[in-house]
Amino acid sequence: MSSYVLQQLVNGLTLGSLYALVAVGFSLIYGVIRLVNFAHGDLMMIGAFVTLGLVATGYVPWVIIPLLVLVGGFLAGATIERLAFRSIRNAPMITGFIVTLAVSVALQNLGILLLGGQPRNFLFPEVFRARVNLGPVQLGVIDLVIPAVTLLLALLLALLVKQTRLGLAMRALSENMLAAQLMGVSANRAVLAAFGLGGALAAIAGFFWGGKFGQIDPLMGLVPGLKAFVATIIGGVGSVMGAVVGGYILGIAEVAFVGFTPPSWSGYRDGFVFVLMILILLVRPQGLFGRDEEERA
Amino acid sequence: MLTLERATVRRGQTRVLDEVSLSVPGGKISALVGANGAGKTTTLMTLSGLLPLKSGQAVLEGPDGDLDIARTAPDRLVAAGLIHCPEGRQVFAKLTIEENLRLGAFLNKDRRAVARLQDSVYALFPVLGDRRRSSAGGLSGGEQMMLALGRALMAEPRVLLLDEPSLGLAPLITDRIFETLVALNRDRGVTLLIVEQNAMMALEVADQGYVMAGGRIVESGSGKELLGRESVLTAYLGVGM
Which residues make beta-bridge pairs with B82? Predict the structure, then answer.
């Protein structure tokens, strides 16, 4: 394999990781309460600006910042659920869908009001920007850190869903909210946790996005949020690992499209992503790892 | 133990419960019977705090004083020992049998106690123990009823509300389930309220019964008494004499 191809693969893995981080939360939230949350991508923006704010103080050491971003994302996700989504939890699906769009627009405009619409430069410290040689390919340290952290967090989330009491509550709510409540499961607490966890992962994706691409702005969450939605659908909605794989497929396919087609085509990368989704859904309507909804008793 | 006082519940414009008053005495078996659509399931949902009252009151005598059901979160009612085994069983089909049972004891944080309860359910229904790691969706209707009952027992109920335990089951299995229920009441003193379309079956084991029609209580008395009233059997329960 030529070093160009390897380089593209590395870029694809990095981009795919960022989609995966957002997609996993999207999938978790949908899984628990069947809400298609279009405001989810904007948590990335919140994570990126929390980072910028923390850096601007000049006091917070770099090791602590990602942890604070995770906490900030959790709080932001949970707060949004409490304020905007709890009251419409039992409303028809279309209502929830519209409200998430409204929240998304509100968050973006709040960002513009508070921070201005101009993109801001975002610089990771030297450690992350350092480059290492791996055979023929030169890698940024960040290109190694992003996939490693993504896989670690996805694994932890999958374990949480599979092994813990909270995860059991989430799976029970996902299948039958009424019966879960009859067991004494508090829907409010579990749903809040799902939004918090999703928010934390999206926020850390925003942190990495800024570090990788060097610029952040209040609308930055929009397109990656939509693509994470695509990744979720490709993987099969409601499955954590499906969302991760969907994110990587999408990231690698997108980078390959840009890297191996004539330069003048690169403007069509977003279009390509959605066409890819349509093609996959034509063949497998339930996504690659999704189970048929009809299978449910 | 559990009372409804002039409870009215609306769905849209219709009164699905119309000033229903009933009381479920502690340590006894009560039956609530009536035709389809009479309001039996609504009554149970109201008693377990899942439907809001338009007017009237629902009260559970708790270990630490009375609880106003309309103002108590469903999980706190479960913690107070009020367990509802819902219509159609509603087991979690995608989860394993073991996970279903663990959910039954969701509020119990003592792992050892949960394991003990689990073993006692497997002792009661060995077929569940044999397949503890397979998903509940693969069970037959009768096995799912056993799982739903076992799941309810995991919560160590003081009061158990059962919605149509015989629905869609073969007579032999229905007998088995009813035997288990009677034993539960006799040996552990669990208070039962059984909603049934199979009125004969429920009234036979019940200490007292209520007959519902059109969202109201229309007859009440001891189980034997109601079984003897021809008017009850023909008019409300569709049993030809």
Answer: B159
Nearest CA in chain A to B44: A182
Query: How many Å is the maximal CA-CA distance in chain B?
Result: 53
Distance from the A99 Cα atom to the nearest Cα atom in chain B, whole angstroms: 24
Pairing of the two strands B82-85 and B159-163: parallel
- Residues A208, A17 contacting (CB under 8 angstroms): yes
Could you tell me which of A238, A250, A240 has the C-alpha nearest to residue A280? A250
Backbone φ and ψ for A155, nearest 5 degrees, come out as -65, -45
Alpha-helical (H) ranges within chain A are 3-33, 42-57, 64-80, 93-115, 126-129, 141-163, 165-175, 177-182, 187-213, 222-235, 240-260, 269-283
Nearest CA to CA, how far is B219 from chain A (Å)? 29
Contact at CB, B155 and A183, closer than 8 angstroms: yes
Whether the CB of A282 is below 8 Å from some CB of chain B: the reply is no
| Complex-level ipTM | 0.89
Q: Is A75 exposed, middle or buried (0-12, 13-18, 19+ CB in 10 A)?
A: middle
pLDDT digits (tens, 9 = 90+) for A76-127: 999 999 999 999 988 888 899 899 999 999 999 999 999 888 898 887 777 7
Nearest-CB residue to A172 (from B48, B103, B107): B103
Is residue B147 within 8 Å of residue B136, measured between CB atoms?
yes
Residue of A175, A176, A183 with shortest CB distance to B78: A183
Q: Which of B78, B92, B155 sits opposite A172 (nearest CB)?
A: B92
Instruction: Render each residue's pLDDT in chain B as its tens digit; 241 residues.
Output: 899 999 999 888 888 899 999 999 999 999 999 888 889 999 999 999 888 888 999 999 987 889 999 889 888 999 999 999 999 999 999 999 999 999 999 999 999 999 999 999 999 999 999 999 999 999 999 999 999 999 999 999 999 999 999 988 999 999 999 999 999 999 999 999 999 988 888 999 999 999 998 899 988 988 888 888 877 777 666 654 4
Cα–Cα dist A41/A225, whole Å: 4
Kindly report the pTM of this predicted structure.
0.89
